[in-house]
Amino acid sequence: MKIAIIAHDKKKDEMARFVIAYKHIFALHQIFATGTTGLRIQKETGLKVTRFQSGPLGGDQQIGALIAQNEMDLVIFFRDPLTAQPHEPDVSALIRLCDVYDVPLATNMGTAEVLVRGLVNGDLDWRTIIKDRKE
Asked: Does the keyword Lyase apply (predicted)?
């Protein structure tokens, strides 16, 4: 599956710890990430990560474009709800696209853990069925 990983600045440490903890699962999938988050994940885990621009420079929109093309299966986006983000409209658009295209979205560690563990169990295999139907 294709998994997008995004983290606001104050959530990057948490995201790094999360990916390290589930490295054995992420290693079985294609990982995409916004710039700084992707670089950090690469350095700390050794995983191959396709990196886009940083979020404020268009990375969220690049991932959104893949969602709109039915090329993304899961988004893990650790948001910082207590800090104003200058690119909030891009964040809102990304969340909306996940809803429109039925892409599972985790915005916190608890939900991310359920989804990532679900990958192992085959709980997200329905994404393949939907992709086949839409093509």
From this structure: yes
